[in-house]
Amino acid sequence: MTAAKISNYSEIGKLNTVIIHQPGPEMENMTPETASEVLYDDILTLDLALKEHAQLSGVLNLVADNVLEFSALLSDILVDEKVKLDLIQDVCALHGHNELVDDLMSFDAKDLATQLFQGTLLKKNTLERYISPSRHAIPPLPNAFFTRDAVMCVYDKPIIGSMAHRVRLTEALLLKSIFNNHPNLKGQGFHFDGTQRKSENLTIEGGDLLVIRDDLLVIGYSERTSARAIDRMAEKLSMGHDNLDIVVVELPKIRATIHLDMIFTMLDVDTVMNFAPLITGAGKCKAFHMSCTQGKINYINEYSGLPKALRLFGLELNFVNCGGDSPFAQEREQWTSGANFFTFAPGQIIGYKHNKATLDALDVAGFEVIDANDLINKKRSLPAGKAAVAMDGSELSRGGGGCRCMTMPVHRDSVKW
């Protein structure tokens, strides 16, 4: 791997470098009773998840130059004893178990990376710990395969997520250390470091931030991303910009819409996937336009919905409906991440096969639907035009996300609008 310059100025530019994470033992280090502690509704089966995730990595390895594995990047930096100690101290302090520092320092780099993902058991050697319902002193990271949430590459630098739930702050600490110390990623600084926040009201996660163009962002105001954080992003990201427009979408604070990319993703320069009831329908979410210049918010206007706000910037979009035209199918398929597509080149996307009505809608919109395994096994090739790669994902989607959630682009080609 050569040094990966950070360059991410759109949602749709050809993908060159991306970070993913193959699920590991952390996914099974929970029970039905403890699943909610790590933000799961149910327990997942690792073997099934691995087979599905292999399709995602297989496709990405065909279309991108560098597919980087989160755990491998972490192992690389943990070879340095100072980096190792600093990171272990930060993780142990976060969870209030500084007594574990020496034990964790005894692991070699690869084993420590595995340990940080799968969690460290709580020693039941005091009454307080014995009666504690928690199994872990340092919780496992079953959400880590959703690499998008804890770090976002925007323009030429990362944003380290300011996670809404403490259990996910470990992911942000690990990724911060990678971008600070990995020889192929370091040296570019951060727009914002969410691990250093001074307020619980300042939260932002990657599923809520969409880079449309170099002068236009769309951000979800959700249960995971706060208004205060959006104000901070407006100030930070507009530095060096004579004009930066941010369209904010106010999402319902419910499980189905934890992030904006669960109801809206860019597929091409003129095409988006959307959950119609909240984007184009009668109950569409309110939108706010923030006009920003050189670190300042000039003014804010309110609009009845995202489509109307985007027209201000010349975006007359074709809206493909998650679940097609059936309200019943729309509701079911949005729940199973039917709107959460990842675009790896203009008009070329990957999403879940089980959302059949959504794939039918894409077919009608001119996307050639291709089975991921056929592509990986070279039975099919990507066409020059629009294509929707369909991968298995029934198990992965039960974790609460889709293909955009599982991919964190570091470098894309620029796009002509």
TrEMBL record:
Pathway: Amino-acid degradation; L-arginine degradation via ADI pathway; carbamoyl phosphate from L-arginine: step 1/2. Keywords: Hydrolase. Signal peptide: none annotated. The keyword Hydrolase applies. It catalyses: L-arginine + H2O = L-citrulline + NH4(+). The keyword Hydrolase applies. Its EC number is 3.5.3.6. InterPro entries: Arg_deiminase. Belongs to the arginine deiminase family. PANTHER family: ARGININE DEIMINASE. This is arginine deiminase.
